[in-house]
Amino acid sequence: MPIVIGHMHTSVFSSPGIKATQVSDTVYVIQGNNRARSPFSNAVCVLDRSTLLMDSGCGLDIIHQVCSCLRIDAVVLSHSHPDHTSGTWLLQDLCSPDISVPRQGSDSIALAEKLALRFVEQDLAQLWRETYLPVTGFRDFVYTSQFDDGTEFSTGKNRFIAIHTPGHLADHYCLWEPDEKILVGFDIDLSPFGPWYGNPESDPGLFRKSLDKIRGLPAEVYVSSHARPVKQPHFMKRMQIYESVFRERDEALLNMVPRNTWIGIEEIVEQSPIYKNDYRAHPDKILRFGERQMIGKHLAGLVNQELIAEEPGGRFRKLLP
């Protein structure tokens, strides 16, 4: 049964412990715990004739509060990372909504064991499950439908069109509201850190193509998972800065590769050019794995550009100009 917007709907956003930003008559951004930084993320709530929640990683306490005031009719998950899906099991218990997931990740998005094998190497899978998942609150869940590029989610007044934007993950999507020109970019988050592509399936080349794809949309409001919404012209300026990080990382890594001798990838990772972490003082196998993945993808790109050479065993040397 469709829900009519009323006082009970909007009152949830003035509840203690919930911070929300209204971006249109019907669209609210609910700030995740830890100021929406990992292991949490923003959720987007559409209060229309039916109520739609985009992502569920804002925090289990927030999910409880939201569901005490609203009946969530449908949930759309943008991609498979647990900081975006962790509250889905709780929503199912409290509201029994329809749960729609990207087709590309549908075989693993709801299952912790499969996610672990997808996101890290087998020898780190148990550590990933035991250290990362508990802080998010993730539990296995059951989805009800899959979506793909071009799928339209209609809530009444609003309609959101799924745009496949791989790179961050193979199953990453954005949602575009063409009538109100609202673009929900999720983990194309325009953060100062820059793009993240630290899983084996992540692809910086596809990431850049996805940026080109959304740059062509006439968005007036941009909503991301780990920052506050931005409007034009700030959106395009932030996009340019965000994309420039690819080049900056390429240049930093090229400068780290010597010309007259070989350097191993583990030697580069130890210097942590991306995370700026001291792995000797603060060892973190999961963090290191993600940084090694990103560094390896950049080095492969530099090899393809014939700027560096690679020998067996993952050792690199700068080529002469």
Distance between the termini: 68 Å
The unreliable regions are: 1-8
The CATH superfamily of the largest domain is identified as: Ribonuclease Z/Hydroxyacylglutathione hydrolase-like
**Total domain modules:** 2
Average pLDDT number:
94
Rg over C-alpha atoms, rounded to the nearest angstrom? 21 Å
Proportion of residues in extended strands: 15-25%
| Helix count, DSSP H or I runs of 4 or more residues | 11
Q: The CATH topology of the largest domain, please?
A: Metallo-beta-lactamase, Chain A
Series of secondary-structure elements, N-terminal to C-terminal: HEEEEHEHHEHHHEEEEEHEEHEHHEE
CATH architectural category of the largest domain:
4-Layer Sandwich
Main sheet: strands, sense, barrel: 7 strands, mixed
Helical content stands at 25-40%
Structural class per helix/strand content? Answer: alpha+beta
Strand order of the largest sheet: 1-2-3-4-5-6-7
Count of beta strands: 16
Shape, principal axes of CA atoms: globular
Could you name the CATH class of the largest domain?
Alpha Beta
Protein architecture, described:
GO terms for molecular function: hydroxyacylglutathione hydrolase activity. Keywords: Hydrolase. It is an enzyme of class 3 (hydrolase). Pfam families: Lactamase_B. Residues 40-226 form the Metallo-beta-lactamase domain. The protein has 321 residues and is of the alpha+beta class. The chain has 2 domains: 7-245, Ribonuclease Z/Hydroxyacylglutathione hydrolase-like (Metallo-beta-lactamase, Chain A, 4-Layer Sandwich); 257-318. It has 11 helices and 16 strands. It has helices at 7-11, 60-69, 82-85, 88-95, 112-119, 122-131, 133-136, 204-215, 234-256, 265-271, 285-304, and strands spanning 20-22, 27-30, 43-47, 51-54, 74-76, 98-102, 145-147, 152-154, 159-164, 173-177, 182-186, 221-224, 230-231, 263-264, 308-311, 315-318. A 7-stranded mixed β-sheet has the order 1-2-3-4-5-6-7, with no helix packed on it. Strands 8-9-10-11-12-13 form a 6-stranded mixed β-sheet, with no helix packed on it. Strand 12 and strand 13 (230-231) form a beta hairpin. Helix 10 (265-271) packs across helix 11. The model is unreliable at 1-8 (pLDDT under 50).
